[in-house]
Amino acid sequence: MRPDVVIVDEPTTGQDLREAHAIMAFLLELARHEGQTVIVITHAMQLAAAYADLVVALYEGRVIAAGPPEDVFRQEDVLRRTMVKPPAVIALGNRLGLNPPPLTLEEAFRAFLNGAQEVAQA
């Protein structure tokens, strides 16, 4: 079976970080290489930030934010209503005014390294 749309609810619950990333990588593979639309329902915001093309935040059954992760996670005041917080690395990027905020530790490292190099060259 190759359905056009695959919906998974909390696929990484109970998994360690390594397995959670493996599951998300598999789902990304389905979307990228098999052409399937994959909808992941999750409270694991760090995984959503790292793997999702589009994030939708719901509150009381209504969409209150939707878009690329870097746009949705920038809206911390809106997300507070959902009791969901952006991943720590994104919150730090928001506080530092990085635009777009880093979605992963690797992106944060590159942003900080680039910023340090710019300061050194000035």
Structure description:
The protein is α+β, with helices and mostly antiparallel strands and 122 residues long. The chain has helices spanning 17-33, 45-51, 69-72, 76-79, 88-96, 105-121, and strands spanning 5-9, 37-41, 55-59, 62-67. The chain has a two-stranded parallel ribbon with strand order 1-2. The mean pLDDT is 90.
Layout of strands and helices, then pairs:
Blueprint: E1 5-9, H1 17-33, E2 37-41, H2 45-51, E3 55-59, E4 62-67, H3 69-72, H4 76-79, H5 88-96, H6 105-121
Radius of gyration: 16 Å
Mean pLDDT: 90
Low-confidence stretches: none
* Dominant shape: globular
Q: Describe the biggest sheet?
A: 2 strands, parallel
In short:
The chain is an alpha+beta fold and 122 residues long. It has helices at 17-33, 45-51, 69-72, 76-79, 88-96, 105-121; strands spanning 5-9, 37-41, 55-59, 62-67.
Which descriptors would you attach to this protein?
122 residues, alpha+beta, two-stranded parallel sheet, two-stranded antiparallel sheet
